[in-house]
Amino acid sequence: MSYPNYGPGPYGQPPQSHPNGTTILVLGILSLVVCTFIGPFAWSMGNKALREIDASGYYYDNRGHIQAGRICGIVSSALLILMLLFVALGLTVGIIGAASEGDY
């Protein structure tokens, strides 16, 4: 026997978890701890999930996890950019130093 669907009822539907919430949080934490190269992925997935949550108008109980993963992704992306700038600076100084050794 099946029961008819009477809708959400007077109290609304119970909150659900966004399907990518845990993935975004794990990617954000791993981007800080293990590999900074996955930070931009956590950042972009977090932005997309937050847009989906805001557009749906529905309450998700793991919005804080998504925001935390997104923020970790932003911090990791900033650290990645700084690291790449330092590597580029080191290579530039090394190339200029090697080129100037032959001028003696």
Low-confidence stretches: none
How do the SSEs run, as a string of H and E? HHH
Q: How large, in whole angstroms, is the Cα Rg?
A: 23 Å
Largest sheet: none
Average pLDDT, rounded to a whole number, is 87
Cα(first) to Cα(last) distance is 94 Å
Tell me the strand percentage band: under 5%
Helix content: 55-70%
* Continuous helix count: 3
Spatial shape: rod-shaped
Briefly note the structural class of the backbone: mainly alpha
Q: What this model shows, in words?
A:
This protein has 104 residues and is mainly alpha-helical. It has helices spanning 21-33, 39-56, 63-101. It is rod-shaped and about 85 Å long.
Question: Quick gist of this model?
Answer:
Keywords: Membrane, Transmembrane, Transmembrane helix. The chain has 104 residues and is mainly alpha-helical.
